[in-house]
């Protein structure tokens, strides 16, 4: 039975992907383009490989043994989630729109004007972000005392801050938009790429991979947008291959090799995943996590979450230092996944969270909602004037999905979004403070001028047809050059005055 489910998942995936690749909607900027490789890797390729390789590492670690029926249901639920995401993301009014690039000299001039003001945003935001990254690197490398006392709550599997402020420790995420935008506004010169290279180096040396993968993805999106390309070039594909190798290498030793090369750590490190089969590590084990969800919900939990985890959005913004009794995780819990095993480090994915929420209907609802919502965001960007701020916001928002699809939780979008968007908000505030003219403002002024020209053209025709009206012309009898100057001055004053 499980083999039939694997065959069905492969055929369904192939059918949807081929249809998408042959459609006019295919581009790297579409949110579905990121969900395709994620689902294909963990819910299509790995189940196929599981027929031949021993993927029992997670079963032993989490202390559970799924039946063949559990594995079949988990795989079919993941496939249903993929189909739901694809169906709703291409609905009319959502993501069923072809990517287009706005090539407007006003927008290009706008980006050139705003580039110098982004340097101010860099000066304001980067000191805290660099300090945050330096603290993390120093604690991991043993250079400084760990200022972050992370405590594992064994009832929920959630680590919380025992001291310090979580906003400060996560402030390093601001370096993702800062490094990507600085490279974009300065046309990807070698000097503008240096901050991104340093961030990737030091963030990878800490052993964490999500932020530097997001930074590389954002850089790729900005580069392809500037080149007006819907698909990765050979150069970008080579960079992606290098990123993939770096991701695997960092996962194996958690950044030890980089730290050792930088002279920050000399002690040996045991690689616990050394003997695992291909793609057998926990980073690619969303299929096993999904099987654990089906194994628990509702067979053992006797209940669903009914998406109560979204209530964490109400408590998450408040630092624990200001609220010592702050609930761990969601303020309302129907059950705990740790009551039935020890799923430490599990990421439930979109279909997994949907199954916990309401079973089969929950998978359709949650995956469809994400697909439709992201499709709407994509459509609004494509159909907008694609101003400098709009492009920066969209290209910095999409990398959040690198982790969000894998986690399946809306709280992930919030946690990363506040740091990814904050430097852009500072940039916008600075531009408004200095009254930097935007392309939108110039278009409005030009439209007013055109209306004035048409109106004055009609008045000139009336003056030529009526001698009485011509005698009332205040510019009559003046030299042509003087008339043109006075008309231009009047038009300029009219453009500055409100309608």
Rounded to the nearest angstrom, the radius of gyration is 28 Å
Major beta-sheet overview: 2 strands, antiparallel
Question: What is the global morphology?
Answer: globular
How many E strands?
2
Query: Which structural class do the helices and strands define?
Result: mainly alpha
Strand order of the largest sheet: 1-2
Percent helix: 55-70%
Distance between the termini: 71 Å
Low-confidence stretches: 266-273, 467-472
Share of β-strand residues: under 5%
Give, in order, the helices and strands.
HHHHHEEHHHHHHHHHHHHHHH
Query: Helical region count?
Result: 20
Mean pLDDT: 85
Can you give a write-up of this model?
The protein is mainly α. Helix content is 64%, strand content 2%. The protein contains 20 helices and 2 strands. It has a two-stranded antiparallel sheet with strand order 1-2. Strand 1 and strand 2 form a beta hairpin. Residues 266-273 and 467-472 have low confidence and may be disordered.
């Amino acid at each position: 039975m499980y083999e039939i489910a694997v065959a069905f998942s492969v055929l369904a995936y192939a059918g949807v992907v081929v249809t998408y690749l042959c459609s006019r909607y295919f581009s790297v900027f579409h949110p579905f383009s990121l969900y395709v490789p994620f689902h294909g890797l963990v819910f299509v390729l790995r189940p196929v490989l599981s027929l031949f390789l021993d993927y029992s590492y997670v079963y032993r670690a989490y202390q559970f043994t799924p039946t063949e029926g559990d594995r079949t249901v988990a795989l079919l639920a993941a496939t249903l989630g993929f189909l739901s995401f694809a169906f709703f993301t291409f609905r009319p009014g959502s993501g069923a729109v072809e990517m287009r690039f706005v090539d407007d000299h006003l927008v290009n001039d706008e980006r050139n004007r705003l580039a110098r003001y982004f340097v101010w945003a860099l000066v304001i935001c980067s000191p805290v972000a660099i300090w945050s990254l330096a603290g993390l690197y120093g604690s991991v490398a043993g250079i400084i005392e760990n200022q972050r006392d992370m405590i594992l709550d064994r009832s929920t599997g959630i680590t919380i801050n025992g001291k310090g402020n979580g906003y400060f420790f996560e402030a390093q995420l601001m370096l993702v938009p800062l490094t990507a935008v600085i490279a974009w506004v300065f046309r990807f010169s070698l000097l503008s790429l240096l901050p991104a290279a340093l961030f990737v180096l030091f963030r990878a040396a800490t052993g964490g991979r999500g932020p530097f993968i997001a930074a590389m993805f954002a850089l790729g999106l900005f580069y392809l947008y500037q080149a007006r390309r819907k698909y990765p070039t050979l150069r970008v594909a080579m960079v992606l291959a290098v990123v993939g190798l770096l991701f695997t290498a960092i996962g194996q030793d958690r950044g030890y090799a980089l730290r050792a090369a930088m002279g920050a750590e000399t002690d040996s490190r045991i690689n616990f995943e050394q003997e695992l089969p291909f793609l057998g590590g926990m980073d690619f084990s969303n299929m096993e996590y999904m099987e654990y969800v089906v194994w628990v919900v509702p067979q053992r939990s006797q209940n669903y979450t009914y998406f109560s985890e979204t209530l964490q959005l109400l408590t998450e913004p408040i630092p624990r230092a200001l609220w010592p009794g702050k609930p761990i995780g969601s303020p309302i819990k129907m059950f705990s996944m740790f009551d039935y095993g020890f799923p430490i480090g599990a990421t439930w994915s979109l279909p997994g969270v949907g199954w916990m929420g309401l079973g089969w209907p929950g998978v359709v609802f949650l995956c469809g909602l994400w697909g439709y919502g992201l499709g709407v965001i994509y459509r609004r960007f494509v159909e907008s004037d694609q101003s400098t701020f709009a492009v920066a916001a969209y290209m910095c928002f999409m990398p959040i999905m690198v982790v969000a699809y894998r986690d399946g939780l809306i709280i992930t979008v919030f946690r990363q979004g506040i740091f990814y968007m904050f430097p852009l908000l500072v940039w916008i505030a600075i531009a408004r403070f200095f009254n930097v003219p935007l392309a939108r403002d110039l278009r409005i002024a030009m439209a007013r001028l055109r209306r004035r020209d048409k109106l004055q053209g009609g008045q000139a025709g009336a003056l030529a047809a009526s001698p009485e009206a011509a005698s009332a012309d205040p510019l009559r009898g003046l030299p042509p050059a003087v008339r043109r100057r006075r008309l231009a001055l009047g038009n300029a004053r009219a453009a500055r005055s409100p309608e």
